[in-house]
Design goal:
It is a single chain. With 75 residues, the chain is of the alpha+beta class. It has a single domain, classed as SH3 type barrels, CATH 2.30.30.140. Helices cover 27% and strands 43% of the residues. The chain contains 1 helix and 5 strands. A 5-stranded antiparallel beta sheet has the order 3-2-1-4-5, covered by helices on one side. β1 and β2 form a beta hairpin.
């Protein structure tokens, strides 16, 4: 199963980019995002940025994901 995750765009090279969350960087594709900019937040699914997120929505999504991860570590 794949989940969509929020990442901040930290590098762009054409349609290839690097997204980051909590210091972890991932290679992503920007084929579906028009005029992407470094510093923007995107939802990434299967390696592709599929939607932009506002900074507040990205923060809420990342906080929720962290809560789930913390609970799973307790199991």
């Amino acid at each position: 199963m794949c989940l969509a995750i929020p990442l901040e765009i930290v590098e762009i090279n054409g349609n290839d980019a690097v997204g980051e969350r909590d210091g972890i960087r991932r290679k992503i594709r920007l084929d579906f995002i028009k005029d992407p900019k470094v510093g923007e937040f995107v939802i990434v699914h299967a390696g592709f940025a599929i939607e932009r997120l506002g900074a507040e929505q990205a923060r809420l999504s990342m906080d929720a994901a962290k809560e789930v991860e913390d609970e799973l570590r307790k199991l």
